[in-house]
Amino acid sequence: MTRYIYILIFFFQIQFSPLWAQDENDDFIIVLDAGHGGKDPGANAEDAFEKDITLKITQMTRKILEDAGYKVSMTRTEDTFIELPERSSYANRKRADIFVSIHCNSSEDGLGKGIETYYTEQKGKSSENLANEIQDALVEHTNAENREVRTADYTIIVETNMPSALVEVGFLTDSEERRLLQQEKYQKKLAEGIAEGIINYYSLEK
After folding, report:
1. Which of 16, 113, 161, 178 is most exposed, with minimal Cβ within 10 Å?
2. φ, ψ of residue 179 in degrees (nearest 5)
3. DSSP letters along 77-133, please?
4. Does the global pTM surpass 0.90?
5. Positive or negative torsion for Cα 76, 130, 197, 202
6. How far apart are CA 52 and CA 201, in angstroms?
7. Contact 94, 158 (CB under 8 A)
8. Nearest residue to 146 (alpha-carbon basis) of 127, 170, 126
């Protein structure tokens, strides 16, 4: 009888465990960067501040990835100011396998809307693959406007020694996206998209 119970438990663990948690990924190190912080609020409109929103999304993303068996570090875990070079240096010191910086966007005319992900061509195909996987998963999870993957030589992704991407999860200057970005339910969708993109990248590259 005891043996039968153990078999049943094992069966249910396999059947109902999340797909992402099937493999142990102890050797794959991810560094997540919540954009801005402290004296640098980032983009802001009305009562919405980029630094607060990015921290919440990054914390949610970290939990999803850790629950899936990945090692995850964050450049900041609270409302603190960190210079851009120090964020890149932190990822380098951690010997991270990938680096993802999470941001909110803004536009001067208030017409900008949607999600876009950046990589630098200086890093080659791996960074492009990472950006593509994250962008695709984010759009799928949120149904947001797809502003596509773009290239830019942002210091924070140029100075890292590993494949890197910078994500703009939406525009605070758009009233509808600002409302969504402040909602925990939508923040979770964004976190799930970023995490899924990272995991898809890992599956592609390993």
Report:
1. 16
2. -60, -45
3. SSS----HHHHHHHHHHTT-SEEEEEEEE--TTS---SEEEEE-GGG-HHHHHHHHH
4. no
5. negative
6. 27
7. no
8. 170
Instruction: Find the mean pLDDT for residues 129-156.
Output: 98
Q: What is the 3-state composition of the chain as percent helix, strand, coil, each rounded to the nearest 5?
A: 50, 25, 30
Predicted confidence (pLDDT) per residue in 16-68, tens digit: 334 344 345 668 999 999 999 999 999 999 999 999 999 999 999 999 999 99
- Percent of residues, the chain, with pLDDT higher than 90: 83
Give the type of residue at 150. R
Helix (H, G, I), strand (E, B) or coil at 37: strand
Phi, psi angle pair for 144, to nearest 5°: -75, 165
pLDDT band at 205 (very low <50, low <70, confident <90, very high): confident
pLDDT confidence of residue 12 = 35
Q: How far apart are CA 206 and CA 188, in angstroms?
A: 27
**Residues 9-25, buried b or exposed e (16+ Cβ, 10 A)?**
eeeeeeeeeeebeeeeb
How confident is the model over 109-122, as pLDDT tens digits?
989 999 999 999 99
Q: Scan for tokens 């969708």, then name that residue.
A: 189
